[in-house]
Structure formats: structure tokens, C-alpha cells
Design a protein that fits this description.
It contains 6 helices and 9 strands. It is of the alpha+beta class. The chain has one domain.
Length: 295
């Protein structure tokens, strides 16, 4: 039987290959940006879920979860043993995370009233990165910290973390605002960021502690003896491989009527203000980015 058809010339084959390459390029371009879009959509869902889960946990367990990630680097004295000599009073370096969030946080030294407010809410211990690592550039993305940045606050092996019972004078990370400098020592002229996130008065100074919702938190139920927890702490995707990706819970400790930290009037119990993602975006902001309402 005679076969229909003909052989293609070299020129014709090159034309076909060129057309296919052009189409493939167009397909790649059309999908460009979807990874970031997917991350924003996931973040919006996770922010709402985590906020609800934390509040439900508080109702069911009569306290908020404990052992959040402090986001800070602690130090030890003497040998690298992570022993009782560990002190968080010098923990003013922040772990590697997106620059946008780093610029929104600063160090704060706990007072007796601030510690009491956290303890009353059920937060008695935070996880710091211990040992002799005192420089934030040495925390994640290297052999010392393990291979998973979000596990930097785990025990040695995957991380360099240590769980510390909080004491007066320990440092915690707080959201920068009026009279609250960030880690670059820049003090904003108002607390508008806290107004946007949680509706706080921007003309006042506020103490709002930021903690990472890590896998060591008691919100992650590994034993089955708690109710309302998570099976795994979520992470924000589409980040550089060396950056911390856990979501951040914000707890309001108190405010100052004269806009200075020195005269903060502390709450009897820390109040959950909001959950933000590792870029520093809160729920409304993340939804606005996902839907194109905010560039």
C-alpha cells in the first residue's frame, strides 16, 4: 500500500521547532508569578486558620500555647553546653527571616509586669537559639543550624534551640512602634503599624510581643493530651532557602498613655492581637495582595 505524505526539508523542520519553542515560551510566561500567587493564597488561609485555632485553644485549655519560638538569638557563658548558664538578657539579634519582617521588629526587655501578663496568658517559656551562636548571620542556612531553617529553634541536630523559662530582664521581640525602636535602632514617629494590624491607638506606645508558631509549641499536639491543637505547624512558602518561614503570633502586653515605654500600663493578661506571616503581612493585607487590591 502506498504511504501518503512527504519528507520535511531542514528549513521546514527548523520552522516547526521555532514555532514550538515560541509556544513553550508563551506558556512559561503565562505561568510566571503563579508561585507567588499560590503562596499568598495559602498564607491568607493559614492566617485565618491560625488565629481561630489559637483562640479556640485558649478557650479549651484555659491558656494559650507555650514554648513559641522567640525569634531571637541567646548566648551562653563558658562552654557550649546549653546549660543553666544560658541567659536571654543579651538576645538582641534576630534570626534570618525576610527583610520586610526584620524591619518591623525590635528588642524589648521584660519587666515584672510584662512577664506576669505573659504568664497569666499561659506563656511561661520561649525557645531561643542558644550555644555560642550570637550572630544572626550564623543561625540558618548552614551546618550549625541544621538543614531546615524553620527548625532552627528545635533541639540540636536540626536546630540550635533551647526552651527557657522566662524571667524578668529577658529579651523578647516586639513590633516596632512609637517609642519602640526596631533592630536597626530606628524609632517610628507613631504606632500606625499596630493600628493597621490590630486597631491600637497610633498615638500611644505599645508593647506587642512577636513569637513564632513553631513545631515545638504546645499548639502542635504530639501526645494527644490537649485539645484544639495542630498536627503540624504551617510555614510560609516561596521564601529563600535560608529564611525562617513560620507564622508569627502577636500578643499585646500593654500601652502607655503618655506615649513612652517607661510608663507602660500592663494588662493583667496578655491579649492575642493577630497572626502575621513571616513577611510581616496580616490577614487583610495578604488577601489584598492575593486579589490584586494592593500592589
Amino acid at each position: 500500500m502506498k504511504r501518503l505524505g512527504r519528507q520535511f526539508t531542514l528549513i521546514e523542520l527548523l520552522v516547526v521547532v521555532t514555532i514550538l519553542a515560541t509556544l513553550a515560551g508563551a506558556i512559561l510566561v503565562s505561568y510566571d508569578g503563579l508561585e507567588e500567587k499560590a503562596a499568598q493564597g495559602q498564607a491568607a488561609h493559614s492566617l485565618g486558620t491560625l488565629d481561630s485555632t489559637l483562640r479556640t485553644y485558649k478557650v479549651l485549655n484555659k491558656a494559650f500555647p507555650d514554648e513559641f519560638d522567640s525569634l531571637l538569638v541567646g548566648t551562653t557563658t563558658g562552654t557550649d553546653t546549653l546549660s543553666a548558664t544560658f541567659t536571654a538578657t543579651t538576645a538582641t539579634a534576630i534570626v534570618s527571616m525576610p527583610p520586610k519582617l526584620q524591619g518591623k521588629l525590635g528588642p524589648h526587655q521584660l519587666t515584672a509586669d510584662g512577664l506576669a501578663a505573659l504568664n497569666a496568658a499561659g506563656i511561661t517559656r520561649l525557645r531561643y537559639i542558644g550555644s555560642t551562636l550570637t550572630d544572626s548571620s550564623n543561625i540558618v542556612g548552614n551546618a550549625e543550624a541544621g538543614s531546615i531553617p524553620t527548625r532552627a529553634f528545635d533541639n540540636t541536630g536540626r536546630g540550635r534551640g533551647i526552651a527557657r523559662t522566662l524571667a524578668v530582664g529577658d529579651h523578647v521581640a516586639v513590633v516596632e512602634g512609637l517609642d519602640v525602636a526596631d533592630f536597626g535602632a530606628a524609632t517610628p514617629s507613631d504606632s500606625s503599624r499596630l493600628r493597621d494590624i490590630g486597631g491600637l491607638d497610633e498615638t500611644l506606645a505599645h508593647v506587642v510581643v512577636a513569637v513564632g508558631i513553631g513545631n515545638n509549641s504546645t499548639l502542635v499536639d504530639k501526645t494527644g493530651d490537649r485539645t484544639g491543637g495542630l498536627s503540624e505547624a504551617p510555614t510560609y512558602s516561596n521564601l529563600p532557602k535560608d529564611q525562617y518561614g513560620r507564622y508569627i503570633a502577636l500578643f499585646h502586653l500593654g500601652s502607655s498613655t503618655d506615649a513612652t515605654q517607661a510608663n507602660v500600663q500592663y494588662l493583667g493578661e496578655a491579649k492575642l492581637l493577630a497572626v502575621i506571616d513571616t513577611k510581616g503581612d496580616w490577614l487583610d493585607e495578604e488577601i489584598a495582595e492575593f486579589t490584586g487590591q494592593k500592589n
